[in-house]
Every structure is written in structure tokens, then in C-alpha cells.
Design goal:
Layout (H helix, E strand, L loop, with lengths): L2 H16 L3 H8 L14 H7 L2 H29 L6 H15 L12 H11 L1 H18 L2 H21 L11 H21 L1 H8 L14
Helix pairs in contact: 1-4, 1-5, 3-4, 4-5, 4-6, 5-6, 5-9, 6-7, 7-8, 8-9
Amino acid sequence: MHFFILSLLVILGAYLIGSFPTGYLAGKCCHIDIQSHGSGNIGATNVLRVLNKKWGYTVFAIDLLKGTAAVAAASALEKTLHLEPKSFLSSLAALSVLLGHSFPIWLGFRGGKGIATAGGVMLALFPVSFLISLSSWIIIFYWTRYVSLASIVASIMLPFSTVIFYCLGFYYPQLPSLIRENGILVTASFLMAVITVARHRNNIKRLLTATESRFERRKKPL
């Protein structure tokens, strides 16, 4: 199969996987239009706030799985067909599944902010970076109680950790010789960070004006 056609199929397939509107469907199961409640976002955070933990965690898990599945499928294809350059299709799948989640065609391109899906991508494509971003998310969230700020910091940590571990050779000693592959991975990580941070632009405005909502713990009834 022509490499260009194969790339287009990967882009389309990953986009469709990412565009599966998990949060929107969760709202419909509860007879709620999630886009008309809370922040109006179909992501796991808004679902958790509007519905409950069960639905919020379920949406998060499925959205994360979307990212992992899309990249894993593209990676398996690369290995099966022995394609070069390595990680090219995986990187295409990573960006496409994230764009599908953020801009699903089924909902007029009004999707989530991509943190869970990006996490799934990182788990499959950048496992060490995933651990670093997850750690930074946990630290920032418990320090500030801002989900948005924690997500922004975690997104920014992705390209920085990718450069360190995939370009400086701290992760795999042989990677410095694979310049082309490293370039693809680093480029994908930077573009992922740009997409996710851009999706939080309204949150950034509210953070700067101190009007962003904190995620407070619910008090147990006495």
C-alpha cells in the first residue's frame, strides 16, 4: 500500500477514535446534555462535576484508552510492515486522536480539552514522559486545587521531558544515533503540548484574573 495513502488512513482512523464523544454520551445516559451544564465541556472533569465520580472516572478511562489504542494500532502497523521512518505513523496517530477528541465532527467540533486522551497517547508513545507529566499534574493539583493549571503544567512537561530522554539519550543510550526518529517524536510532543495548552486558553485567562474555579473536596455529611 502506498505510504501516503496509509498515512491518510491512519490519520482518519485515529481521528475517528478520538472523536468518540464519551462525555457527551455519559450525559445522555443520565438524560443530561453535558454541553449545557457546568463548563459545557465534554471532558472527564466537567462530567465528574455535573454527574458523579463514577461517570467522571469512566469517561476519563475511556478517553485515555482512546489515545493508547490509536497509537498502539499505528505502532503495530509500523512494526508489521517494517516502515521507515520509525514512529512516523505513531506520531500521526497521536496528533490525530488528540484532534479528534478536541474537535469531534459529531458535536460541531466542540470537544474536550484532551488531557486524558493525551495521557493515553503518552502512555503508549512516551512512557517515561507520561510518568513525569503525571507526577507534575498530581503535585500542582494538590498544591493549588486547580485542575486546569495542573493540566497545563503537565502538558508543558511533555516536550521538555521528551527532549531530555529521547534526544540527550538518558532513556535509551542508542537513541542519539536515531536523529530522524527522535525529531519526529519531539515534534509530536511539542505539537501535543500546543494543542492542549491552546484548549485551555480560557482557563489561562481566568487563572490570570483569579476567577478560575478550584476543585474543592466535597464534605461528607455528618
